[in-house]
Structure formats: C-alpha cells, structure tokens
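Subject: Sanity check before I submit

Could someone independently write out the structure tokens for this chain? I want to compare against mine line by line before I put it in a report. The sequence has 155 residues.
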Amino acid sequence: MQVYWFSGRSLDDLCATTQISLASGLIERGYDLTFVNPDPKGSHVNWPWNHQSISSSTAPGFRSRSLGKNMKNWFEELQIENDAIALIDWRVANYVVPLFQKRNMKWILIDRSPPADKGILSLLQWPSWKKSWKQVHQNTTAHGCVVSSMHRDFV
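---
Independent answer below. Compare away.
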C-alpha cells in the first residue's frame, strides 16, 4: 500500500523523532511511504522512504498556506494506486483534503497539538485547525489521531 505523508515539519526539528519512528515503523511493516515536506531535495537519502521536497514561503503567517497549495499542485499531477492513503498535518489539510475527497482517497489527520502561536498568527491558525477537524467528522473516508486523551477531549 502506498502512503503519502504530507507534513509541514522538517525532519531537522527537535520533535522529529516521533515522525521518524512512525515512518520507519510503516516501512518495516511493508508500506511504501513517500514523505512530502519542505525539507531540501536529497535530505532524506539516508532514510528508507521516498521524499518529495515542496517549497513554501518564508514569510511568517504564509508558510502553511504556501506549502499546502504547493503540495496540492504536486499531488494533482500524481497518478496514485487505488489503495493509497494519506497522513496529513492539520496545518496543510485544508489545501489537500478536497483533492483526496475528489479521488475518494482515505486520509488520516495527524494532530500533534492545536495551534501554539499567540497573537495575530493564532487568528490565522485556529480557523484552519477547526476546519481540519470538521472535515474529519464530515468525511467517511477520514480519521484523525491525537497524542493524548486530554488532547482527544479537547478536539
């Protein structure tokens, strides 16, 4: 089965150990994983999965929007297997989910935490986070996962 993981996080982040462990576990279980994120091309050559580098804006407040749109454009051109599934971070979900729905593709929202920014950036992030979860609840081919029972209760 082909798995596409759409993430806004870099594997250079300190918190990337969770992503690396999950990705490695998927590979060990025989899944064909393509990790789609803003890391530079060639930066995943030492990992056992495929990598697709997607560019994004560097302007604060526009990174997720730019990344999500570029991910959507890349995925629109891709021929996928019938049993493909996508893992997606909430911050890019609103850009790629309509394409998954159009293709009747299963997807899982990965929510490691609600928006953490304060101030003006949070005004941009909270509506996107809420819309991502609304799409999970309204779609029969979607699921969501969180990191704790307290987080689940919050969602």
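---
OP: Matches mine. For the report I'm noting this point. The radius of gyration is 15 Å.
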